[in-house]
Each structure stands twice: as C-alpha cells, then as structure tokens.
Amino acid sequence: MITALLIAGMVGCIELPSKDLKIWDWHDLDAVRNNLRGHHILMKDLDSTTAGYEELASPTANGGKGWEPIGTWPHVFTGSFDGQRYEIRDLFINRFNESLIGLFSYVYVGGVIKNLGVMNADVTGHEGVGGLVGVNWQGTVSNCYSSGNVTGYYRVGGLAGSGAGTVSNSYSSANVTGMVFVGGLVGYNSNTMSNSYSTGNVIGNSAVGDLVGENDGTVSDSYSAGSVSGNEGVGGLVGFDLSVLGEGTVSNSFWDIETSGQVTSAGGTGENTTQMKNITTFSGAGWNIVAVTNPGTRNTSYIWNIVDGQTYPFLSWKPVV
C-alpha cells in the first residue's frame, strides 16, 4: 500500500499558502490540516489540560480513535511546522487498521517539521506508524524528539514509520512494537539520517533495529542504547541493511551491546556501556562533539555534547535534564 502511494505523483492540497498560523491549543493544531502548505508556529506546550484535548486528541476523541493525523493522503503536508522547542504531550491515536499514522500522517516534498517534541504519546496504527510522522517522503525533520509508545505492524518507528526524507539532530526514547521493519527512531530509512539517536526498547519479528529497522539509505554519526528483540534480521543499531546490494550505508555510528542485548548489527560498531560514555569513542570517529561539565550545560558550538564518563552523547540543542 505505502509503496504505491509513495510513487504516485500527487501533491498536497489545493489551498493557497497563508500567513503564519500561531498554535495556542489543540483547536489551532487541528486547523493545520486546513492549511497544509502554510507556515505554522507552536506558541506553547500542549497537553491533556489544554483546550480541545478531550474532543480532538484524547482516548475518547473521534469515537475512541483519538487524534486524526494531519496531512492524510492525498492531501499531504508540504508546509512548515516550527515547534519552537515546545512539546505536544499526551497524544493518543488508536487506528490499528489504518496506515500512515502519527501526529502528521504524510509529510511530502518540501514539508518541514523542526524544533518539536512529541512526548508521552500513545500511537497505534497498521503500516507507516511513528510518534511524529507516519511517512516522511522527501520532507525534512530536524531537531525533533519523541517518547511514549508506538505500535504497528509494518514500517514502525519511534519518530517516523517510513523515511524517504531527511532526519537530523533528532532522537526518540519511545518504546516501539511491530512486526516487520521496526526501529527505535525510524522503521524504514531510504534517504539520509544523521546526528540522531534512540534509547527506547524495540520489539519486532523481522528487520528490527534499535535505530533503524531497515536501512536503504545513509546513516551517519548516530547511535542507539535501548534493548532490541526479534526473530530474524535483528541488530543492535540496524536490523537489515541493503549495503549488500550497494543501496545502504552506515558510517561512524554505534550501539551499546550491553543495553541492546545484541552483539551484531547490519551496520555500525558495537561498544560496551563504558565506551559509549567515553568521548574518545565518538571524537575518534570524527563526530562534532565536546565534553561539558554536567548534563544541564551545553556548548552549542558543537552538535553533540557529553559528560565524559557519565552520559551518552546528547544533542547540544536539547541537553539531558
């Protein structure tokens, strides 16, 4: 189903772009679907106490299905969404027999989502399921993160279910459960992923990895540190990589062999927990990283910060708290 949708030539919606839409509550967020080519700015954190939650994003909303994803096919999202480092919390979606499921359903060519956290999400779908995005098709996701639980069948990821766009400077701590192409950050990657990580627990059947389930693109300067379990094509970082066909590349990336329970991966380098908290592991691989004195301190002159010997690397724009 997804393959057929991805190769289709249809573009988003027919409405003309408008001025920036400022989002103050769930009603404003819901209105994004009426301006899919516009520029949207989140003005505050949204959670279960914010106006509109009960009728739009709660377990009782929409007949128990919860949130209706933004940008459902063929009216895809091609605009921009700047979270301004605010968070969307307590999102609930229960659409187990529907595909392209997340806060956003389908981000298409030119679509941009940045500076946004989706926290404590409970997201269930069938194919192309992610906490933030169901399918990122040649869109851009940067400086984003997610937590909670994401469940699906095919192409399931903590942040994005299927990625043919770019993902950078992002992470997920969501627990992910699926069957095929299941990843802690992205279920299926066929473009570029860089400077990103995942720490959630991942359970699947085949092509299961703590960062990426299947990689058909490029992964660089990334890591994972959650547990991983499955039956075939299971890896600490990447479950299945098409590098054997000349189609996938993993470089300068690592996984924790102790926390993952996996000593092999279809890409990357396995290290023990002590090495994963040692700056030389990453600086030696050419990462843009610097040591800081505590998790609340950040040096934004570098992409990555680390408290040497104490923490895993963290992105300088979003320090560990």
What is the quaternary state of this protein?
single chain
In helices, the fraction of residues equals under 10%
What form results from the Cα inertia axes?
globular
Q: So, CATH architecture of the largest domain?
A: 3 Solenoid
CATH topology of the largest domain: Pectate Lyase C-like
Radius of gyration over all CA atoms, rounded = 18 Å
Assign the CATH class of the largest domain.
Answer: Mainly Beta
Largest sheet: 18 strands, parallel
Task: Please report which band the strand proportion falls in: under 5%, 5-15%, 15-25%, 25-35%, 35-45% or over 45%.
Answer: 35-45%
In the predicted model, the low-confidence regions spanning at least 5 consecutive residues are: 1-18
Given helix and strand content, the structural type is: mainly beta
Mean pLDDT: 93
Task: Sum up the structure in keywords.
single chain; about 325 residues; mainly beta; Pectate Lyase C-like; 2 domains; 18-stranded parallel beta sheet; six-stranded parallel beta sheet; globular; disordered N terminus
Compact summary:
9% of the residues lie in helices and 40% in strands. By secondary structure, it is mostly beta strands.
Can you put this structure into words, describing what you see?
The protein is built from six helices and 32 strands. The protein has helices spanning 2-7, 26-30, 53-56, 257-260, 273-276, 279-283, and strands spanning 21-23, 39-42, 80-89, 92-94, 104-107, 112-124, 127-130, 133-136, 140-151, 154-157, 160-163, 166-168, 171-172, 175-177, 180-183, 186-189, 192-194, 197-198, 202-203, 206-209, 212-215, 218-220, 223-224, 228-229, 232-235, 238-241, 249-251, 254-256, 269-271, 289-291, 304-306, 314-315. It has an 18-stranded parallel β-sheet that branches. The chain is globular. The chain starts with a helix and ends in a 6-residue tail after the last strand.
